[in-house]
Amino acid sequence: SEHLQKTVIPSRSEDKVSVLDSGPEMAEPQLAVVTSKLSVKAPEFYPSGYIQNFNQNFPDSTFEDRYDGYLTLAEYVQDFLNHLTEQPGSFETEIEQFAEALNSCVTTDEALQELVELIYQQATSVPNFSYMGARLCNYLSHHLTISPQSGNFRQLLLQRCRTEYENRDEATRGDETTKTQFHSFVLFLAELYLNLEIKGTRGQVTRAEILQEGLRELLNALFSNPVDSNLICAVKLLKLTGSVLEDAWKDKGKNDMEEVIQRIENVVLDANCSRDVKHMLLKLVELRSSNWGRVHGTTPPTEPTPENDPNYFMNEPTFYTSDGVPFTAADPDYQEKYQELLEREDLFPYYEENGADLSGPGDLYYDEIDDEMDPEIEEAYEKFCLESEHKRKQ
């Protein structure tokens, strides 16, 4: 601490820096300076697979605001998927920025395949994410700009699903873990069928027909090994897509849903499944018989008459003649008796038809009304008026 160093900073033409020390015991080292050939204007270097600071691109986003460094594609996508799982309501507000960020970094076949795998794993392993995953897949299939020779996002996604689909027979006979994973895949494929939109050459929007055929084969695989877990998965699949599948098959002139229902009835009669599962299957057959619970529009209601409404007279009022004989609208002499009732002068002596009071001074009812207040009430009322007037003046 007793020695003070003095550093001499050379000009651009100097190649060496001398370090002088006031102490005689210190040597004078010579440091060589190597001149860099890099320009100060050279672009900043980023390692392959890294994404730049998203705060610069999305300053107003609630999701990207959490990051102030660099992330790999896998980290960024997985964090966004977890974010959607926890806050599904943020899908509408943040999906556009998410797609824009992917378009800036998903520029290779490998990156696109990695993106597909991440979404697929989240949709088939996280409970209740299959619907959100299907919505996400539909959005990205229309908004990702990359379309390599290996296939666009939708094509790679369907290829990934096909890998699991081809193992359906083994999966329905596997252990419980295998079955559970397979059932998650089945329900994700069902959501994908409902949400994935295919735009035709004329701009029309249709569903992926290959998924329709795939779901039919998955049902066959589930019913081929009718254990409880497989049957429960089949019930969930049909509750989710049954009406849509049946409409699509009918449009093609197919009777596939009748075959599915017959298969279910055979399982109920022959399979060794539990009583609860058989009850679920019967409820499903009942649901289908009611057109999957769909209510179609009916003809406008007509004015009820005694001819078309058997309960027409049930809510009609009951009147009494001057002799105390009751009669209703169902009475043959109703009109005559009702007119006689209206003509009675003493029917409503104090009220008009609109309910206005016609009584006045001299009337027995009117004269019996006591307009005077109780002394205590009158005293309290006067006190209230004085206090109100005092507050108003203040």
TrEMBL record:
Localization (cell): Cytoplasm
Pfam families from the UniProt entry: MIF4G
Residue ranges constituting the MIF4G domain according to the UniProt record: 74-291
One GO BP annotation of this record: regulation of translational initiation
GO cellular component, one term: cytoplasm
Primary location: cytoplasm
Keywords attached to this entry: Cytoplasm, Translation regulation
Record region (Disordered): 1-21
Top-level taxon of origin: Eukaryota
An annotated Gene Ontology molecular function: RNA binding
Entries under InterPro entries matching the protein: ARM-type_fold, MIF4G-like_typ-3, mRNA_TranslReg/HistoneTransl
Protein name: Polyadenylate-binding protein-interacting protein 1
Organism: Furnarius figulus
